[in-house]
Amino acid sequence: MKSDMGLIVKTMARATIPLIGIFGAYVVSHGHLTPGGGFQGGATIAGAGILFLIAFGIDEAKKRINKSLYSALEGLGGLVFLGAAMLGLSVVFFYNTLWHNGPVFDGKPGTLLSAGYLPIMNLAVGLKVYTGLMSAVFAIALFRRWRK
Amino acid sequence: MIPLQFVTAFLMVFMGIYAFLYKRNLIKLILALNLIDAGIHLLLISLGYRLENGILPTAPIYTGYETLKGTPMVGPIPQALVLTSIVIGVCVLSLAMALTINAYRHYRTLDVNKLRRLRG
Amino acid sequence: MRKTFGALSLLFILGILLLIANPNYGLKFGLGGEDWQKYRYTDQYYIDHGIEETGGTNIVTDIVFDYRGYDTLGEATVLFTSIAGAVALLRKWREENEE
After folding, report:
1. Going residue by residue through chain A (148 aa), what tens digit of pLDDT does each one get?
2. What pTM value is reported for the model?
3. Is A146 on the interface with B (CB under 8 A)?
4. What does the H/E/C string look like for B13-80?
5. Which chain B residues are within 8 Å of C79, Cβ to Cβ?
6. C49 and C11 in one domain?
7. Which InterPro entries match (chain C) (predicted)?
8. Closest residue of B to A125, CA-based?
Protein backbone atom coordinates (compact mmCIF):
# COMPACT_ATOMS: atom_id res chain seq x y z
CA MET A 1 0.00 0.00 0.00
CA LYS A 2 1.29 3.40 -0.96
CA SER A 3 1.69 5.48 2.15
CA ASP A 4 3.10 8.81 0.99
CA MET A 5 1.21 11.81 -0.31
CA GLY A 6 1.34 13.60 -3.64
CA LEU A 7 3.87 15.89 -5.29
CA ILE A 8 2.42 19.20 -4.04
CA VAL A 9 2.39 18.09 -0.43
CA LYS A 10 5.94 16.75 -0.72
CA THR A 11 7.28 19.98 -2.21
CA MET A 12 5.55 22.12 0.39
CA ALA A 13 6.84 19.84 3.16
CA ARG A 14 10.40 20.16 1.82
CA ALA A 15 10.04 23.92 1.93
CA THR A 16 8.42 24.24 5.37
CA ILE A 17 10.06 21.56 7.51
CA PRO A 18 13.39 23.46 7.96
CA LEU A 19 11.55 26.68 8.80
CA ILE A 20 9.43 24.96 11.45
CA GLY A 21 12.54 23.32 12.88
CA ILE A 22 14.44 26.61 13.07
CA PHE A 23 11.51 28.33 14.74
CA GLY A 24 11.24 25.54 17.30
CA ALA A 25 14.97 25.74 18.04
CA TYR A 26 14.61 29.50 18.56
CA VAL A 27 11.72 29.01 20.96
CA VAL A 28 13.68 26.44 22.96
CA SER A 29 16.95 28.38 23.15
CA HIS A 30 15.31 31.72 24.01
CA GLY A 31 12.98 30.13 26.55
CA HIS A 32 14.08 32.33 29.43
CA LEU A 33 13.70 35.59 27.47
CA THR A 34 10.70 35.42 25.17
CA PRO A 35 7.36 33.61 25.32
CA GLY A 36 7.84 29.90 25.03
CA GLY A 37 10.09 27.41 26.66
CA GLY A 38 11.20 23.81 26.52
CA PHE A 39 7.87 22.12 26.14
CA GLN A 40 6.45 24.48 23.53
CA GLY A 41 9.56 24.43 21.34
CA GLY A 42 9.87 20.67 21.61
CA ALA A 43 6.26 20.25 20.55
CA THR A 44 6.89 22.58 17.59
CA ILE A 45 9.88 20.54 16.37
CA ALA A 46 7.82 17.37 16.87
CA GLY A 47 5.21 18.95 14.62
CA ALA A 48 7.87 19.24 11.91
CA GLY A 49 8.74 15.56 12.41
CA ILE A 50 5.12 14.48 12.20
CA LEU A 51 4.73 16.52 9.00
CA PHE A 52 7.69 14.62 7.57
CA LEU A 53 6.09 11.34 8.61
CA ILE A 54 2.71 11.97 7.04
CA ALA A 55 4.02 13.66 3.89
CA PHE A 56 6.70 11.15 2.93
CA GLY A 57 5.16 7.98 4.30
CA ILE A 58 6.18 5.47 6.90
CA ASP A 59 8.64 3.61 4.65
CA GLU A 60 10.73 6.69 3.95
CA ALA A 61 10.59 7.77 7.60
CA LYS A 62 11.73 4.35 8.80
CA LYS A 63 14.89 4.69 6.73
CA ARG A 64 15.73 8.17 8.02
CA ILE A 65 14.76 7.99 11.69
CA ASN A 66 16.12 5.53 14.21
CA LYS A 67 13.42 4.77 16.75
CA SER A 68 15.57 3.20 19.45
CA LEU A 69 17.96 6.16 19.30
CA TYR A 70 15.03 8.46 19.98
CA SER A 71 13.95 6.38 22.96
CA ALA A 72 17.51 6.59 24.33
CA LEU A 73 17.66 10.36 23.80
CA GLU A 74 14.46 10.79 25.79
CA GLY A 75 16.08 9.19 28.81
CA LEU A 76 19.17 11.35 28.25
CA GLY A 77 17.03 14.49 28.34
CA GLY A 78 15.50 13.46 31.65
CA LEU A 79 18.93 12.70 33.10
CA VAL A 80 20.32 16.09 32.01
CA PHE A 81 17.34 17.78 33.65
CA LEU A 82 17.97 15.90 36.89
CA GLY A 83 21.69 16.66 36.74
CA ALA A 84 21.04 20.38 36.27
CA ALA A 85 18.75 20.24 39.28
CA MET A 86 21.52 18.54 41.29
CA LEU A 87 24.15 21.21 40.48
CA GLY A 88 23.39 23.17 43.62
CA LEU A 89 23.04 20.16 45.85
CA SER A 90 25.51 21.62 48.35
CA VAL A 91 22.82 24.12 49.37
CA VAL A 92 19.51 22.49 48.50
CA PHE A 93 17.94 20.51 45.67
CA PHE A 94 16.86 22.80 42.79
CA TYR A 95 19.12 25.62 43.97
CA ASN A 96 20.15 27.94 41.14
CA THR A 97 23.85 28.05 41.91
CA LEU A 98 25.07 29.14 38.48
CA TRP A 99 23.31 32.47 38.82
CA HIS A 100 25.28 35.17 40.71
CA ASN A 101 28.40 33.02 41.22
CA GLY A 102 28.71 30.66 38.28
CA PRO A 103 31.36 30.71 35.55
CA VAL A 104 29.17 30.53 32.46
CA PHE A 105 25.53 31.56 32.66
CA ASP A 106 25.99 34.74 34.67
CA GLY A 107 25.26 37.57 32.26
CA LYS A 108 23.07 40.61 32.51
CA PRO A 109 19.36 39.71 32.70
CA GLY A 110 17.94 39.83 29.20
CA THR A 111 20.96 38.41 27.38
CA LEU A 112 21.21 34.88 26.04
CA LEU A 113 23.87 33.58 28.45
CA SER A 114 22.16 34.43 31.70
CA ALA A 115 19.72 32.98 34.19
CA GLY A 116 21.78 30.15 35.68
CA TYR A 117 20.55 26.67 34.83
CA LEU A 118 17.37 27.76 33.04
CA PRO A 119 18.82 27.42 29.47
CA ILE A 120 20.23 23.96 30.27
CA MET A 121 16.86 22.83 31.59
CA ASN A 122 15.09 24.32 28.59
CA LEU A 123 17.32 22.39 26.20
CA ALA A 124 16.88 19.17 28.20
CA VAL A 125 13.11 19.43 28.36
CA GLY A 126 12.93 20.37 24.68
CA LEU A 127 14.96 17.30 23.71
CA LYS A 128 12.85 15.10 25.97
CA VAL A 129 9.51 16.32 24.67
CA TYR A 130 10.58 16.16 21.02
CA THR A 131 11.92 12.62 21.19
CA GLY A 132 9.06 11.44 23.40
CA LEU A 133 6.33 12.71 21.09
CA MET A 134 8.16 11.41 18.02
CA SER A 135 8.57 7.92 19.47
CA ALA A 136 4.91 7.81 20.56
CA VAL A 137 3.71 8.83 17.09
CA PHE A 138 6.07 6.31 15.51
CA ALA A 139 4.81 3.53 17.74
CA ILE A 140 1.23 4.35 16.74
CA ALA A 141 2.10 4.63 13.05
CA LEU A 142 4.05 1.38 12.92
CA PHE A 143 1.24 -0.65 14.44
CA ARG A 144 -0.47 -2.07 11.37
CA ARG A 145 0.72 -5.62 11.39
CA TRP A 146 -2.58 -7.37 11.91
CA ARG A 147 -3.88 -6.37 8.50
CA LYS A 148 -0.91 -7.28 6.28
CA MET B 1 -23.06 39.43 34.03
CA ILE B 2 -21.03 36.29 33.49
CA PRO B 3 -17.68 36.95 31.76
CA LEU B 4 -17.23 35.53 28.28
CA GLN B 5 -14.20 33.44 29.25
CA PHE B 6 -16.19 31.62 31.92
CA VAL B 7 -19.06 31.03 29.51
CA THR B 8 -16.72 29.47 26.93
CA ALA B 9 -14.89 27.35 29.51
CA PHE B 10 -18.04 25.97 31.08
CA LEU B 11 -19.57 25.38 27.66
CA MET B 12 -16.55 23.25 26.75
CA VAL B 13 -16.81 21.28 29.99
CA PHE B 14 -20.54 20.82 29.42
CA MET B 15 -20.01 19.57 25.87
CA GLY B 16 -17.48 17.06 27.17
CA ILE B 17 -19.89 15.75 29.81
CA TYR B 18 -22.64 15.46 27.18
CA ALA B 19 -20.35 13.41 24.96
CA PHE B 20 -19.43 11.19 27.90
CA LEU B 21 -23.09 10.47 28.58
CA TYR B 22 -24.39 9.95 25.06
CA LYS B 23 -21.60 8.78 22.76
CA ARG B 24 -20.38 5.21 22.47
CA ASN B 25 -17.31 5.43 20.26
CA LEU B 26 -13.99 5.17 22.09
CA ILE B 27 -12.28 7.81 19.94
CA LYS B 28 -15.11 10.22 20.69
CA LEU B 29 -14.72 9.53 24.39
CA ILE B 30 -11.02 10.41 24.18
CA LEU B 31 -11.90 13.61 22.34
CA ALA B 32 -14.42 14.44 25.08
CA LEU B 33 -11.73 13.93 27.71
CA ASN B 34 -9.46 16.39 25.92
CA LEU B 35 -12.33 18.85 25.54
CA ILE B 36 -12.95 18.85 29.31
CA ASP B 37 -9.18 19.27 29.79
CA ALA B 38 -9.08 22.31 27.50
CA GLY B 39 -12.08 23.86 29.21
CA ILE B 40 -10.49 23.56 32.63
CA HIS B 41 -7.26 25.06 31.28
CA LEU B 42 -9.16 28.03 29.88
CA LEU B 43 -10.93 28.53 33.22
CA LEU B 44 -7.67 28.49 35.19
CA ILE B 45 -5.93 30.87 32.78
CA SER B 46 -8.82 33.33 32.92
CA LEU B 47 -8.78 33.22 36.73
CA GLY B 48 -5.32 34.77 36.61
CA TYR B 49 -6.48 37.87 34.77
CA ARG B 50 -6.12 41.26 36.43
CA LEU B 51 -8.33 44.34 36.05
CA GLU B 52 -6.80 47.63 37.08
CA ASN B 53 -8.90 50.67 36.25
CA GLY B 54 -7.81 52.14 32.97
CA ILE B 55 -4.58 50.15 32.45
CA LEU B 56 -4.47 46.96 30.43
CA PRO B 57 -2.21 44.34 32.05
CA THR B 58 0.66 42.82 30.10
CA ALA B 59 2.05 39.29 29.97
CA PRO B 60 4.56 38.50 32.76
CA ILE B 61 7.63 38.81 30.53
CA TYR B 62 10.21 41.58 30.88
CA THR B 63 11.50 41.83 27.33
CA GLY B 64 12.84 45.35 27.70
CA TYR B 65 12.86 44.96 31.36
CA GLU B 66 13.71 48.36 32.79
CA THR B 67 10.82 50.14 31.09
CA LEU B 68 8.22 47.59 32.12
CA LYS B 69 9.03 47.70 35.85
CA GLY B 70 5.97 48.56 37.87
CA THR B 71 3.28 48.13 35.22
CA PRO B 72 0.46 45.72 36.14
CA MET B 73 1.04 42.17 34.94
CA VAL B 74 -1.16 39.11 34.66
CA GLY B 75 -0.59 36.49 37.35
CA PRO B 76 2.06 33.98 36.30
CA ILE B 77 1.24 31.05 38.61
CA PRO B 78 -1.88 29.80 36.75
CA GLN B 79 0.05 29.91 33.48
CA ALA B 80 2.89 27.84 34.89
CA LEU B 81 0.61 25.24 36.43
CA VAL B 82 -1.51 25.00 33.28
CA LEU B 83 1.70 24.41 31.31
CA THR B 84 2.36 21.38 33.52
CA SER B 85 -1.23 20.26 33.08
CA ILE B 86 -1.06 20.47 29.27
CA VAL B 87 1.91 18.08 29.23
CA ILE B 88 0.02 15.60 31.37
CA GLY B 89 -2.97 15.92 29.03
CA VAL B 90 -0.76 14.95 26.07
CA CYS B 91 0.55 11.96 28.05
CA VAL B 92 -2.98 10.78 28.86
CA LEU B 93 -3.96 11.22 25.19
CA SER B 94 -1.07 9.06 23.93
CA LEU B 95 -1.66 6.31 26.48
CA ALA B 96 -5.42 6.26 25.80
CA MET B 97 -4.79 6.06 22.05
CA ALA B 98 -2.45 3.09 22.58
CA LEU B 99 -5.07 1.30 24.67
CA THR B 100 -7.76 2.04 22.08
CA ILE B 101 -5.64 0.66 19.25
CA ASN B 102 -5.04 -2.51 21.26
CA ALA B 103 -8.76 -2.88 21.99
CA TYR B 104 -9.58 -2.49 18.30
CA ARG B 105 -6.98 -5.08 17.42
CA HIS B 106 -8.54 -7.62 19.78
CA TYR B 107 -12.25 -6.95 19.31
CA ARG B 108 -12.46 -5.36 15.82
CA THR B 109 -14.88 -2.74 17.06
CA LEU B 110 -14.83 0.58 18.90
CA ASP B 111 -18.36 0.49 20.32
CA VAL B 112 -18.29 0.42 24.11
CA ASN B 113 -21.29 -1.87 24.55
CA LYS B 114 -20.12 -4.51 22.07
CA LEU B 115 -16.61 -4.24 23.43
CA ARG B 116 -17.75 -5.38 26.84
CA ARG B 117 -19.97 -8.20 25.61
CA LEU B 118 -17.68 -9.88 23.13
CA ARG B 119 -15.27 -11.93 25.19
CA GLY B 120 -16.43 -11.36 28.73
CA MET C 1 -35.55 5.76 32.08
CA ARG C 2 -31.94 6.01 31.09
CA LYS C 3 -32.56 8.92 28.73
CA THR C 4 -34.54 10.91 31.28
CA PHE C 5 -31.91 10.30 33.94
CA GLY C 6 -29.19 11.52 31.58
CA ALA C 7 -31.14 14.64 30.65
CA LEU C 8 -31.89 15.46 34.28
CA SER C 9 -28.27 15.07 35.30
CA LEU C 10 -27.21 17.29 32.39
CA LEU C 11 -29.63 19.99 33.54
CA PHE C 12 -28.34 19.68 37.11
CA ILE C 13 -24.71 20.04 35.96
CA LEU C 14 -25.65 23.06 33.85
CA GLY C 15 -27.28 24.72 36.85
CA ILE C 16 -24.23 24.11 39.02
CA LEU C 17 -21.94 25.51 36.32
CA LEU C 18 -24.05 28.65 35.96
CA LEU C 19 -24.04 29.09 39.74
CA ILE C 20 -20.25 28.79 39.89
CA ALA C 21 -19.65 31.10 36.94
CA ASN C 22 -21.60 34.04 38.34
CA PRO C 23 -19.12 36.63 39.66
CA ASN C 24 -21.53 37.96 42.30
CA TYR C 25 -21.34 34.90 44.53
CA GLY C 26 -19.15 32.49 42.57
CA LEU C 27 -15.71 32.75 41.06
CA LYS C 28 -14.33 36.27 40.97
CA PHE C 29 -13.05 37.43 37.58
CA GLY C 30 -10.36 40.05 37.19
CA LEU C 31 -9.16 41.02 40.62
CA GLY C 32 -7.40 44.35 40.82
CA GLY C 33 -6.06 46.97 43.16
CA GLU C 34 -6.60 46.10 46.82
CA ASP C 35 -8.03 42.66 46.10
CA TRP C 36 -4.99 41.75 44.01
CA GLN C 37 -2.61 42.69 46.80
CA LYS C 38 -4.71 40.81 49.32
CA TYR C 39 -5.42 37.52 47.52
CA ARG C 40 -2.67 37.26 44.89
CA TYR C 41 0.39 38.37 46.83
CA THR C 42 2.34 35.30 45.67
CA ASP C 43 1.97 36.31 42.02
CA GLN C 44 3.00 39.85 42.93
CA TYR C 45 6.07 38.55 44.78
CA TYR C 46 7.14 36.48 41.74
CA ILE C 47 6.62 39.45 39.42
CA ASP C 48 8.61 41.80 41.65
CA HIS C 49 11.51 39.56 42.73
CA GLY C 50 11.73 37.00 39.94
CA ILE C 51 14.51 38.68 37.98
CA GLU C 52 16.86 39.26 40.92
CA GLU C 53 16.43 35.78 42.32
CA THR C 54 16.56 33.57 39.24
CA GLY C 55 17.75 35.77 36.40
CA GLY C 56 15.30 34.90 33.67
CA THR C 57 13.16 37.67 32.26
CA ASN C 58 10.34 35.27 31.46
CA ILE C 59 8.55 34.89 34.79
CA VAL C 60 6.62 31.80 33.72
CA THR C 61 9.87 29.95 32.96
CA ASP C 62 11.25 31.09 36.31
CA ILE C 63 8.29 29.58 38.13
CA VAL C 64 8.24 26.37 36.09
CA PHE C 65 11.93 25.58 36.41
CA ASP C 66 13.04 27.27 39.61
CA TYR C 67 10.36 28.06 42.17
CA ARG C 68 8.22 25.01 41.41
CA GLY C 69 10.89 22.68 40.08
CA TYR C 70 9.47 19.64 41.80
CA ASP C 71 6.31 19.98 39.74
CA THR C 72 8.34 19.91 36.55
CA LEU C 73 10.30 16.90 37.78
CA GLY C 74 7.05 15.01 38.39
CA GLU C 75 5.77 16.10 34.99
CA ALA C 76 8.91 14.77 33.30
CA THR C 77 8.43 11.48 35.16
CA VAL C 78 4.81 11.25 34.00
CA LEU C 79 5.84 11.99 30.41
CA PHE C 80 8.55 9.32 30.46
CA THR C 81 6.28 6.71 32.04
CA SER C 82 3.35 7.27 29.70
CA ILE C 83 5.50 7.24 26.56
CA ALA C 84 7.17 4.04 27.76
CA GLY C 85 3.73 2.54 28.42
CA ALA C 86 2.46 3.50 24.97
CA VAL C 87 5.53 2.08 23.22
CA ALA C 88 5.32 -1.12 25.28
CA LEU C 89 1.61 -1.56 24.52
CA LEU C 90 2.16 -1.21 20.78
CA ARG C 91 5.01 -3.70 20.59
CA LYS C 92 4.88 -6.94 18.63
CA TRP C 93 3.12 -9.53 20.72
CA ARG C 94 4.19 -13.03 21.44
CA GLU C 95 1.08 -14.84 20.15
CA GLU C 96 1.38 -13.09 16.85
CA ASN C 97 4.19 -15.37 15.71
CA GLU C 98 2.08 -18.46 16.19
CA GLU C 99 -0.95 -17.24 14.25
Report:
1. 567 788 898 899 899 999 999 999 999 888 888 888 888 898 999 999 989 988 888 878 788 888 788 888 888 888 888 888 888 777 778 777 777 777 777 777 777 777 778 888 888 988 998 998 888 888 888 776 555 4
2. 0.84
3. yes
4. HHHHHHHHHHCCEHHHHHHHHHHHHHHHHHHHHHHCCECCCCCCCECCECCCCCCCCCCCECCHHHHH
5. 87-88, 90-91
6. no
7. MrpA_C/MbhE (IPR046806)
8. B87
